[in-house]
Amino acid sequence: MDITAITFKTERISDSLYRVIVQRADEVVLEKYYVGNDFDIYEFKLSPVPTDLPILIDFGADYVIPAKVTVRVFAPMPIEYLAQMVSGGRDEIDIGRLVLWDKKKFYYGKLTGGELVYFYASGITQSPVPRKDLAYLAIDIENKDNEEWNLRRVLIDYNQLSLFLKDDIIYTELVRMIIENKEVKLDYTDEAPIKDGALILKGEENARKMGIYRLGKRTLKGLLFKGVI
């Protein structure tokens, strides 16, 4: 993807010491020093990655799910970019992560049950639009119960989701949410939510790199409500 105003350069400090700089406009956002030879041959690469933070999506208001329905929705999620130097297609050196979104605006903590929990303030849409700082969590919600429920929060294992790209929009893999007998189960599918979506990050590989394990189905308590609390 074209991330405007991001530039990269290497400076030879001595015969074997290089300074690597990543800038946004005139601001240095990443700076590393490397010992070696021929760092001038490396090219710069930016790859979308899930934010390295716990994500409990807070919709800010109840999303009403009628009885016996299935609906697909998208929730905007923060995205980061892994800056790398690449040579020969396989030799990759991680420089660091770039954050394009406003943490103070979207990411906040508050006391819940006596513990400090961090939330990501999001919303729900059915019409994603291109954004450089956001990916869209794709959720198929199936309410099998004979009663209406309100959805307020969803806990997502974000680092385990695959990412797809189409028309400059970043999507996560499809997550199926099944509501049955007053319980919620999330099924991580590895499937693209759009036709001809290009895979840009495989969730299983990212989870392994982060030192976590790929999850299947899990039951989440306390996410569904009746009426207004």
Pick out its properties.
mainly beta, single chain, disordered C terminus, 229 residues, nine-stranded mixed β-sheet
Strand residues, percent: over 45%
| Sheet/helix structural class | mainly beta
Q: Helical segment tally?
A: 2
How does the overall form come out from the CA principal axes? elongated
Largest sheet: 9 strands, mixed
Query: What is the average of the pLDDT values?
Result: 81
- Low-confidence parts lasting 5 or more residues at pLDDT below 50? 225-229
What does this structure look like?
This protein is mainly beta and 229 residues long. It has helices at residues 103-106, 203-209; strands at 6-12, 17-24, 27-35, 43-50, 55-65, 69-87, 91-99, 107-112, 115-121, 134-143, 149-156, 163-166, 169-180, 183-188, 198-201, 217-220, 224-225. The strands form three sheets. Strands 4, 6, 7, 10, 12, 13, 14, 15 and 16 form a nine-stranded mixed sheet that branches. Strand 8 (107-112) and strand 9 form a beta hairpin. The protein is elongated and about 70 Å long. Residues 225-229 have low confidence and may be disordered.
Concise overview:
This protein has 229 residues and is mainly beta.
List the helices and strands and how they pair.
Elements: E1 6-12, E2 17-24, E3 27-35, E4 43-50, E5 55-65, E6 69-87, E7 91-99, H1 103-106, E8 107-112, E9 115-121, E10 134-143, E11 149-156, E12 163-166, E13 169-180, E14 183-188, E15 198-201, H2 203-209, E16 217-220, E17 224-225
Parallel strand pairs: 5-9, 10-13
Antiparallel strand pairs: 1-2, 2-3, 4-6, 5-11, 6-7, 6-10, 8-9, 11-17, 12-13, 12-15, 13-14, 14-16
